[in-house]
Amino acid sequence: MRRMRRLTGVDNLFLKQEKSTQPQHTIKAVVLDPAAAQQPLTFEAIRAALPALVERIEPLRWQLLRSRLGRPWWIERPNIDLDHHVKRVSVPAPGGDRELSAQINEINMGGLDHSRPSWQLWYVDGLVDGRIALVLKLHHTLADGMASLRLLETMLSADPDEPLPGVTRSLTDERRPGAARWYGTLLRHQAAAAARFPNVLARSARTIQTVRARRKAGRPGFAEAFAAPSAPFNAPFTERREFAFVTCDLDQIKTVKTAFGVTVNDVYLAVCSGAVRSYLQRHGELAAESLSAVVPVAIRPRGAEVDWGNQVTTWYTSLATDIADPVRRLHQISANTKAARAVHDERDLWLFGDWMEYWPLFWFYGRALPILGAATKKRPTYSLIASNVPGPRGRLYFGGAPVEKLISVGPIVYPYGLNFTGWSYRDDMTIGMQACSDHIPDIWEIADGIQVALAELCSLAGESVAVGQAGTG
């Protein structure tokens, strides 16, 4: 029997906060040009290749095995039901970004069936110029941003001559162990966790001392919880969603970065902030105080092989939406992220995840926090989620078809009713976004606002460079 894998406390969080109005899957979409493929990339060809992809990509074989005694486990079930896991749909003409976004939105709505491996792949045709898209709906328990990138790089290839994969070995479904072995395994895990508990307590005490020392010294840190005003998207949401994506020129982002001495992530947060600010201002909802963001940050050891599951911490930072001037806003965001980085560097990054191995913090986040949020509607904990994953710089292929675009978006979690997910690929950064359509009925207003915000910063960057050159002439 293969060795089962137990979900970590952080992985389990995504299960515990899941409900019909809050499914916890992510979307990963790949836009392909099939004209150069090694073979016709028909739906039938993709469907036939699925068993080989499942063989190649380990988490696509995992099915949840729930337990009343602690966290669930992953058990291998590689013999998937193709009719359930791979679907086909066509977008209406003209097959552009808006039509693709609308179809991704339809795929995104509704949860996944955990009685099977927690994913589905959609073959989307009808795109402009004969393009197709493969849209993967993947539960967040399986992979964070870095693990999802590993999944896509395993599925795709840097070799334009590599054909679609074929099955090389036969895999059998793993059975649930007998009662004696099952409970013995659980007891060993509980005993090991109990043995580590004093260490977790000691690390917690050191972290509290670090927090107190920073505050006593008056050094800036994370944005305060419940300090941001409520925005329309912070209200409780329904099952309905709105999704859009926009592709930005990475060279333009880097031009702004260089001109103003900030980071790519600062520019990313600034264009998201500018788009939200403009949207709220147009609708008469812009508050005098700034909104804030939950920013997931990878904590995997540098150079280590990326494992599956979730290994992230979070920064909490103000988005400076109270500042009208785009350059001042960008510099303030940069100062905020520098403070967040300083906190990050002095904290025990693994402590939150380790506590969730012992303590049902996921219950607090999944149940108590919405109740608290409902009682304090004017002050959500934080405003929105904004993540940014650096993707591949080289060209990728699938069955010889070049990948033209990578699109991603993560889930919304009350009260964070707006999610921005940036993925870079080659010379572009594609930013996906989703919200509840009850609160943002046309999310394309925000998507278009991102392009406007970036163009404005690019123009101001050009002026800054010109002034600098004149000053040294």
Describe the structure.
This protein is of the alpha+beta class and 473 residues long. It has a domain at 216-392 and 409-472: 2-Layer Sandwich (Chloramphenicol Acetyltransferase). Helices cover 40% and strands 20% of the residues. It has helices at 9-16, 43-56, 82-85, 97-108, 145-155, 179-217, 250-260, 264-282, 326-346, 351-355, 361-375, 444-472; strands spanning 5-6, 25-32, 62-65, 73-76, 86-90, 119-125, 132-139, 242-249, 292-298, 312-318, 384-389, 397-398, 401-409, 418-425, 428-435. The protein has a six-stranded mixed β-sheet, sandwiched between helices. It is globular, with a radius of gyration of 23 Å. The model has no long low-confidence stretch (mean pLDDT 90). Residues 308-457 form the O-acyltransferase WSD1 C-terminal domain. Residues 7-268 form the O-acyltransferase WSD1-like N-terminal domain. Pfam families: WS_DGAT_C (PF06974), WS_DGAT_cat (PF03007).
Descriptors:
40% helix, 20% strand, alpha+beta, six-stranded mixed β-sheet, 473 residues, 12 helices, 15 strands, Chloramphenicol Acetyltransferase
